[in-house]
Write a structure and sequence with these properties.
The chain is of the alpha/beta class. It has 9 helices and 10 strands. It has helices at 23-35, 43-56, 62-71, 73-83, 94-107, 121-132, 149-157, 170-176, 226-239; strands at 110-114, 140-146, 159-161, 177-180, 183-186, 193-198, 212-217, 240-248, 260-265, 268-273.
Length: 274
């Protein structure tokens, strides 16, 4: 979701701790409605984090917090950054990434969406694979979207830790990164174009991105219930060109819907748009 920064919207109550603990359920429901994430499996951890958050911001109650995130875009973004997970690394589920790029090359070029893109590891991995396969920079473009603004800022900086690139060979590290102390900066100038945007797959603004040949949504639906999983794949379907491919993560439970045909390519599962 595209969020604006309007400082005049900020309204902070003056108290030390939230008094209305019952309002926490309202908060959980509000987050689910906003981005589909079901926080119930991590209820205790979430309660501790949000309790500390409202205390730090001097917000009176969880109900007040729910009310404030409806109109305060800065606070809403801070909350989304707090409750969303961004744990990934380069070449994660590599056989699937390779299948995506082989298909893109067969097409003679492709437009690819990574939703969510986390800190950019997946999008840059695809760009690196395209480079290694000999694809020209103008033959492929990659768009990454994520609801977490801190993750998008990290994508745009293109600076990664040793842990993020641990699965790469020394040759790949030297080819695609410039090392500065203990960090590695991606050499984006040699790669196909990767652009990143703060966006929510459940916000209609995502349709302004246009159509894609390939959509990847990996390890996001594990945080959704059945209804939101179905809603998610239906919305991603609208972003695909005719006969476009949708790839989900290995841990994702993709609900059945007649708008896709499940197919296999070299042992990799994908979903073809009908």
């Amino acid at each position: 979701m595209l969020l604006t920064n309007n400082a005049k919207d900020v309204k902070i109550a003056q108290t030390d701790t939230p008094q209305d603990m019952d309002g926490f359920n309202d908060f959980m429901n509000a987050i689910k409605a906003l981005c589909g994430v079901d926080l119930e499996p991590k209820r205790d951890i979430t309660l501790r984090r949000i309790t500390a958050f409202v205390k730090d911001r001097q917000i009176k109650s969880f109900k007040d917090l729910v009310s404030m995130i409806r109109y305060n875009s800065i606070l809403r973004q801070d909350i989304l950054n707090l409750v969303t997970v961004n744990e990934t690394y380069f070449y994660r589920e590599l056989p699937q990434l390779k299948d995506v790029i082989y298909y893109a090359k067969d097409l003679g070029g492709a437009r690819i969406l990574c939703a969510p893109c986390s800190t950019g590891d997946e999008a840059y991995s695809l760009a690196m694979l395209a480079y290694e396969l000999g694809m020209k920079q103008n033959e492929i473009s990659i768009v990454g979207v994520d609801i977490n603004s801190e993750a998008i800022a990290s994508c745009q900086k293109g600076i990664f830790s040793e842990r993020s690139i641990q699965r790469l060979s020394d040759f790949q590290k030297d080819r695609f990164f410039t090392k500065t102390e203990d960090k590695f900066k991606i050499k984006s100038e040699i790669l196909p174009k990767c652009e990143f945007k703060i966006m929510n797959v459940f916000d209609d603004a995502i349709f302004n991105l246009g159509k894609f040949d390939i959509v990847l949504s990996r390890n996001m639906m594990i945080y959704f219930d059945d209804a939101f999983r179905l809603k998610c794949v239906e919305r991603l379907h609208k972003l695909l060109k005719p006969d476009g491919r949708f790839y989900a993560g290995h841990a994702d439970l993709v609900p059945y819907t007649p708008i896709y045909e499940k197919r296999f390519s070299n042992g990799i599962t994908y979903y073809l748009k009908k």
